[in-house]
Design a protein that fits this description.
Helices cover 61% and strands 10% of the residues. It is an alpha+beta fold.
Length: 301
Amino acid sequence: MQDWQPAHDGEVLWPHLDRTADGAADWMHSMLPASEATIDVLISNETRPRVFREGDGLVGVLRGINFNPGDEPEDMIAMQVWAEKTRVVKLRRRRLQTPRDVLARRQETGTGPKTAGDLAIALTRELVSKINSAIADMNDRIDELEADAADARPEDLLGEIGGIRRACLAFKRYLSPQYDALAQLQRDPPDWMSVSNRNTIRETLDRLSRYLEDLDVSKERALVLQDDLNNRAATEMNRTMFVFSIIAAIFLPLGFVTRLLGINVGGMPGVNSAGAFWITVLILAVIVGIEFMLFKPMKWL
């Protein structure tokens, strides 16, 4: 692979490299007409989305949905690309589904990218299109939570809603600069990209813009639902505290009377009367009745 070159005019090489593998940096230094700073971008762990040109080459750092088992979709995987007229070098640290899907479509149908521009744009378009499935799944889950909100306990849903909001922020963290990066590519594409490639970039940008809008809507929906549940939980808590306050208000005078009658001093009335207990109970019942008569007009009951 060290001396890999196209065998015929019009052919495009598509090497896949693990940027953490031994020898990856040496191969790029020897094979790519790129500066030291650009090579550092291609192998760096600082993978904020960006696109820029160096001479006739195009450098792209993009993020794609994480479909690896056990990982979260919003934990987006970086794809670093060096593209020129006869070669597209893709670098990654973790496995990414997008290049495999582009390759599989080419193998299964015999159609697909034929030039370096076609390949670079196909990777970008596929990377962006997969974002839709993650956002759609998130919106479907918000729909389910909204439908369940009336019957479920707020504490059962608030944790998941918080997770959705964090996922929206994680997507926005990468998709906003990714939009800016593709906009830069649309403004200044390399000469070897065709008119069709440039039109596809425009459509991909429009699609990514819609996804960003959908993310904003999802975040707002989750926020509204979270506020509703918090308000409901606060209302239920206030109602519970109100009931406890009413109970305390009812038993406060009763407790005062029973404690007064329980003091161990001489001269307490009814000590030697057989009916004193029932008289006391009657007095307490009258006090409770008076309290209910007072509380009812005040709408405490």
